[in-house]
Amino acid sequence: MLPRSALLLVASLLAALPVNADGLYTKKSPVLQIDQKSYNQLIANSNYTSIVEFYAPWCGHCQNLKPAYEKAAKNLDGLAKVAAINCDDDANKPFCGQMGVQGFPTLKIVTPSKKAGKPRVEDYQGPRTAKGIVDAVAERIPNHVKRVTDKNLDEWLSEDAEVPKALLFTEKGTTSSLIRALAIDFLGSIKVAQIRNKESNAVEKFGVTEFPTLVLLPGNGKEHILFDGELKKGPMVDFLSQVAPPNADPAPAPEKAKSKKPSASEKKPKSDEPSEPEDSTAEAKPSVPVQAPAPAPAIDTLETSEALEAACLAPKSGTCVLALLPESDAEPTQPAKEALETLAEIAHKHARKQTKLFPLYSIPASNTAAKALRAGLGLPEDAQSVEVVALNARRGWWRHYDPSDSADFGPVRVEAWIDAIRLGEGSRNKLPEGIVVTVDEPAKQTDHDEL
């Protein structure tokens, strides 16, 4: 038996612990806490990409995820939504089951589609780290930013001349999460485009001297305005707000939905406040079949040295991206698996959009040419690491993807690297002698002599 003083001390300590009846996250948490009723309005009808955690407060893995998830929420603030729903709450259990939740924590990324209120829902299978979550969500932020050049700039400016426009001058060929989120903020009220610094006519026309620079065109022939503030979401939103207010969220989906309800006179008397959540849950059902989309097809594997030479190392071979895999008697290592999944996802994305992309191949360590290629490019020869390289035998250059100390092969970084290659950005290394398989000239001469 504990003495009375000890019991009082324990009781006081327990009373001092923070208690949150809603689950893991407090009201001050950067994680948006939703339930069955608010999912449809705040997530499904939003123009923003979201990631939703389905959890139970007693789940140890959920508790371990909490710090990384809250960090991801802070990093994605203003760019996307990071939400959580307590599936241990009796009111939420039917909805969690309907969303296909079978274990905790389950993370699902919700991406807006062309049909309002019917987003694409997919399971997040990446690393349970803040960086992994941020990269995956940022990669799925819708892109409403048009890319323009000197050739089509005037055409874009003349379209809907009365509508305000925002033009970002940048040295980068890729479209950042920030400018994509900004375009979502003003979707339907301000048209947003991006132009490279090498488009000299546009640079001169708007008097741009630094990059990046945001230019606002109020419309109706009014003089353009250069943004001279800090290139962060808040100041940029304030700058653009002088010509149009940012969209309320969610918008415009709720307004369209409301405009349709009065026409259904039979349903209106029944759609009092208690019944609306049931309707919202029913509307979410069509999105369930797309929760587990078919995985992207694996990239092709070049098993033999002959296949590798014919595809990528012949004198006339164009650009190839190669994933040089580590030796493994069992399943691929986690970095190798992530690299292959990311490359497959990128290839599948371009195939769906019917955009041209150079071939991506995996090269197993059993391919006899793999070790020679590693040695020739100065890569680790022990074949214990996965190395991703791009090379062009015809033009004699190669580039190495640096996964950084964290061995990050997430979609955002890898796709940015591939986009840079497609756009001709960044430095290239000269292919060392012996990499490209050349024709045996003496044999060729002998044949000619015989003729």
Your description of this structure?
By secondary structure, the protein is of the alpha/beta class. It folds into 3 domains: 20-139, Glutaredoxin (3-Layer(aba) Sandwich); 146-240, 3-Layer(aba) Sandwich (Glutaredoxin); 300-430, Glutaredoxin, CATH 3.40.30. It is 36% helix and 16% strand. It has 16 helices and 16 strands. The longest helix has 20 residues, at 334-353. It is flat and about 65 Å long. The protein starts with a helix and ends with a helix. The model is unreliable at 5-21, 251-293 and 441-451 (pLDDT under 50).
Characterize the biggest β-sheet.
6 strands, mixed
Over the alpha carbons, how many angstroms does the gyration radius reach?
27 Å
Q: Say how many strands there are.
A: 16
In the sheet with the most strands, the strands line up as: 11-13-12-14-15-16
Q: Helix- and strand-based class? A: alpha/beta
CATH first level of the largest domain: which class? Alpha Beta
CATH level 3 topology of the largest domain = Glutaredoxin
Number of helices: 16
- State the fourth-level CATH superfamily of the largest domain: Glutaredoxin
Instruction: Please state the overall shape, judged from the principal axes of the Cα atoms.
Output: flat
Structurally, the number of domains stands at 3
Helix amount: 25-40%
User: What percent strand?
Assistant: 15-25%
Kindly report how far apart the N and C termini lie.
Answer: 108 Å
In round numbers, the mean pLDDT is: 82
Instruction: Pick out the low-confidence regions.
Output: 5-21, 251-293, 441-451
